[in-house]
Amino acid sequence: MSAGPAAARQGPFCRLSRTLQPAFRFPCWRCEIGCGSRAFCHANTFPTPHFSIEKIIMLIDSHHHLWAYDPAEYGWISDDMSVLRQDFLAAQLREIASESGVDGFVSVQARQSMQETDDLLKIASEEPLIRGVVGWIGLADPDMESQLESVSGRDKLVGMRHVVQDEPDDRFLDGEAFNHGVSLLGQHNLVYDILIFAKQLPAAIDFADRHASLPMVVDHIAKPTISGGTMDPQWEPHFRELARREHLTCKFSGVATEVRDADWDIETIRPYWDVALEAFGPKRLMFGSDWPVCLLRTGHKQWLDTVRQLASELSEDEQAAFFTDNAIKAYGLDA
Q: Where would I find the Amidohydrolase-related domain in this sequence (predicted)?
């Protein structure tokens, strides 16, 4: 359990908890008592729970992006995504961590270039909040092995991802050269992140079977189309089938962005939460924000609060798995 970055600050004891050791005090902004002390107190001081579980466990956001915006480098950011046409770097990430109470992040590539991987690793080397980096190499390139060797072993590199969702061939994941590249990741203790649309799920099932010993992470619950209150028929049956592969975990992230209706609320999201939770279970599902892409439909804290409400049905241990342990296990992060 982590008290988060704020607990490292010096200050007086909370007047409701004067004798506790500093390592076990929690910042007032996490408190639900509201004594007004603006100091520190302990989660277990009171017979009635002082904090809800989501506020006292360490919180890992398993999916976010960083970029110094350049239209030539980020052509996928279209005219209707103007909110994303700005820099999102370590300074902004620290603001998000403070606002939402996040203890660690996994940074994921947003450009398909070796430079992207290098840039993210450099930022991560200077930013303690970044626990891991999912980068990019040309997995189908003839020189893929030399690309992999050039980054293998770098601190905080935990996985690789290819933007399969943008490939015109829905069976891109069948490609022999691509599969050869993916097959080498395990030798370097790297995970593969699967980024697809729902229509690509059948190929993803075969792909996962082909690499049964390689840990994989499904991004954004495989991006169903959410519209009109009806479940995406391309998504649910294939998603459930994919989840039967025990070497896969899944991020409950990027879901609000897939809503096609003008407005959304927790009830819009709930059916997809229910399916994802039932399919993967609380030990193979993890929280992610997809910040800053989530800003197209929601803020980081709004999304976190929505997911916390959905996860409130889980036991304390299950919430700890979903918000913390599953990301640590999936990516081999330092706890």
A: 60-333
Task: Answer for the pair 272, 226: CB distance below 8 angstroms, yes or no.
Answer: yes
What is the C-alpha separation between 57 and 325, in angstroms, rounded?
Answer: 10
Give the angle 100-103-109 at the CA atoms, nearest 5°.
90
The reported pTM is 0.84
What whole-number distance in Å separates Cα of residue 20 and Cα of residue 7?
A: 13
- List, in order of start, the domains of the chain with CATH numbers: 1-51 (no CATH), 55-331 (3.20.20.140)
Residue where the block lists tokens 């005219």: 79
Give dist(CA 242, CA 273) in Å, integer: 16
pLDDT at residue 6 tops 80: no
The rounded radius of gyration (Å) of the Cα atoms in the chain is: 20
* Amino acid, res. 10: Q
The predicted pLDDT at position 229 comes to: 84
